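Hi support team,

I submitted a single chain yesterday and got back a structure, but I'm not sure I'm reading the token output correctly. Could someone confirm the output below corresponds to the sequence I sent? I've pasted both exactly as they appear in my results page.

Thanks,
R.
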Amino acid sequence: MRLDEPPSFAILSVNVGRPAPLGTWQGEAVTSAIRKLPVMDANIAVSATNLGGDAQADLSVHGGPDKALYAYPALHADWWEARGVAYRPGFMGENLTLDGPAEDQVHIGDVFAWGPEVMVQVSEPRGPCFKLGLLTGQADAPQQMVLSGHCGWYMRVLGPGTAPVQGSLTFVSREAGSPSVRETFLAKAHRKLVPEARVRAIMATPTLGREWRATLERALRS
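Hi R., thanks for writing in. Yes, this is the structure output for that exact sequence:
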């Protein structure tokens, strides 16, 4: 598949979870909804901020319109398993486990149809936190995600409704000149690899998530 070819995805699994104890971090008990399990129903309700049956423990950094859904490409499974992480659908905390291209072929602002009712749009990459280390049992797992760029992406819901659990994300549209998820991730995680002018162009992308834009603004000021 060419980098400029519009992506499409088969949905391998739709996953949800509720806040539950995850472990201990710096002497404090940690609650998280990062543990997701596959949905067994044929359909699922999709709202502007969440999937039916899903929830977040810390709404200051998770959830909200720009992070209604988290998608992860299953093609990264072998990479994680080679590093001792027993990946399964939902293991990275993703709502959508996808069979299709990676972060370099998905762009900020890409719109997809999920069944006849639901429309979703790519908003920003995932920035991993310490909870990924607790989940995997490997403290450096967040760093490994940063170094590899195997981050996945968040999506906002443009049109809520009921979506099929077995199905696909069908490409609808792309904004001209929009950055890929990978480039957007690099602009934050590997700042020196992306020229300042390009970082500013990424920040100017209308559909970029507000949190990611604010992080890039802070990075440029530092």
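A quick pointer for reading it: The chain has one domain: 9-175. Let us know if anything else looks off.

Best,
Support desk
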